[in-house]
Amino acid sequence: MRKVITYGTFDLFHKGHYNLLKRAKALGDYLIVGVTTEHFDEARGKVNVIDPIVDRIENVRKTGFADQIIVEDHDGQKIEDIQKYGADIFTVGSDWVGTFDYLKSFCKVVYLSRTPGVSSSQLRNERFNIVSIGIVGTGRIAPRFLSEVKYVSGAIIECAYNPERESAVRFEAAHGIRTYTENYEGFLEQVDAVYIASPHETHYDYAKRAILAGKHVLCEKPLTFTKAEAEELYTLAREHHAVLMEGVKTAYCPGFLQMMNVAKSGIIGEIRDVEACFSRIADIESREMTDRIYGGAFLEYGGYPLLPIIKLLGINYKEIVIDSLPGENGIDLYTKIHLRYPQGFAMAKMGVGVKSEGQLIIAGTKGYILAKSPWWQTRKFEIRYEDPNKIDTYELRFQGDGLRYEVGDFVSKINGRGENSNYKLTPEESIAMADIVEQFLKIREGKVS
Ligand code: CTP
Question: What digits encode the pLDDT tens for the residues 246-271?
Fold first, then answer.
């Protein structure tokens, strides 16, 4: 008996999938089909799969070609399966020619010609309106956003906006994206949604005007400088049926979400302390180091260390102490924030002029989680216990620079598929962060000692 094995996502089952399975079956006597899990797809960068795995398996089953269906959930599994099930032939569509040649030492590899003119990506795009996004601000983050959006189906970058003509012209020339320099409202008319990556002090105004024009907003952190402004934006977004998301990208990364859930699962007992640090020595000439009002460590990086604290201990702290080491020009080179909760402590540290170990420690009554730098791009964390020999290690996948996960969520929400994904960073949590920003700024302005 010749056994054939093939793998796929089989999302929005289409005739290309049907033809592939039919021909795969014809290569032998027994066909094994591996269907990928959501988690595996997400980890390898396919962030917009629509059908749940049970539906995708059912669709494969209904073709009648599969004699056995298995689930694919990790890298390296293909070699394992070929040996385990004794497969004689591995096959996939011709879009993968060459990729699986490494399997030739285990079985025969056959690339079947792909059915032209159909793919799940194309169907996903047809099924939902493509979201056209305008980028506000063309500084350092914008090019990263461009390269990450390529991994999200259903989104295109339409145009950009920067009131500074020189930067706008440079961006347009470098990336071939029409960049507006005046008439923000005119720019908004060209798009369904905006990604705001302009200087911090402009976030609120750009976000508000976009929401009022009925546009969806993904705004870099910090969303606003005051609690009231953040509340206002979320209220306006609700009223105008616009999606508003604060771009604390760690919040949307699968590995970080898993770490938060493991922490809350009770495995380390009750959580009593969260310590998080993020530091990046900034260039002396950079905006972080020179902008006396809007530069500095906290405004630049505060969102990262505050995120796990707020996710794990909540927004109802009893006391907050914010302290900074100022540079000569008044910016904070290094800031420490202590939070006191009824049953716990937290400390967030961030630096642009002081370098420290960028780690996250979540301390509980039975053990602790240690995530080393860069924990904000969660690829690995450990659970440690009283017994130093017992360490549970979690290794996770993190693709690119992580922006694709937040953009994927943004696009899903706009298409009405991701309303429930609010839990990743709720409006209340985002507002609580704005509240801390407000308190920080008051202290820095000397209004509060
Ligand atoms: N396939 C095919 N012809 C198509 C589309 C897919 O033969 N028009 C094959 C793929 O080569 C693969 C299998 O079907 O062997 C499952 O592919 P999958 O990745 O699930 O489907 P795609 O439509 O290619 O999905 P996506 O657009 O998300 O990449």
Answer: 999 999 998 999 999 999 999 999 99
